[in-house]
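General statements about sequence and structure are easier to judge against a single worked case. Part of our work consisted of pairing the sequence of a single chain with a tokenised description of its backbone. The amino acid sequence and the backbone structure tokens for this protein are reproduced below.

***
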Amino acid sequence: MIDLLPSPHGIAAAVALVVAGAIQGSTGFGFSMLAAPMLAVIDPAFVPGPMLAMAVAVSAGGAVREWSDVNRQDLAFSLTGRLLAAGAAAFCVSLLSPGAFAATFGFGVLFAVVLSLLGLRIETTRRSLFLAGALSGFMGTLTSIGAPPMAMVYQNAGGARMRATLNAFFVVGGIISIAALAAAGSFRFSDLLLAGTMLPFAFLGFLLSGWGRRIVDKGRVKVVVLVVSTASAFALLLRSLA
């Protein structure tokens, strides 16, 4: 486990969480997609448990802030899919070697980036929400990165609906994934302590996200997420080869 601040690794982890918290507060997604690959390079102990715990806390802040814009029907279908997939994914964690775990991260993030760059358009329907929720649950439980499938479904929705509903989804979905990991023996009290130690940095970023909400509809935040996620993905792939 990394040394706490002010070690170089601790500072790097803190900066990653501040940026990720600002992105999450601005868009309703991207916290794990941005921070998890970077923190996994710093120390694998951050994933998946501690990252999921921090994502739940930051997403809860976003859901409360825009609660009136949460779409309950969207939540029902997407969370049903996530619940069905999370249990199966939890029992796959022990099947991955550290190298394969890093490679799964890298290829998963690159795949999401490619889909975004290709401009894949998915309508927000009951079927797409269910399938995206299931894929998000599987990816999120295994790698802490469950945002890409849900973000793709909401890429053409309004900003407030997207932010509020995705934040609510990640709160409930993250709790489901943590429970599944705990049942499989892959989430321990030490994970909760690590999450609690680093959580203030994530919330600092969230509190600074007001500017991001004002520009998110112009598409600028998406560019930042894609660039940083691509760099993180390549770093993870290099780590898996090592």
Summary: The chain has one domain: 8-241. The chain is about 75% helix and 0% strand. Residues 8-241 form one domain.
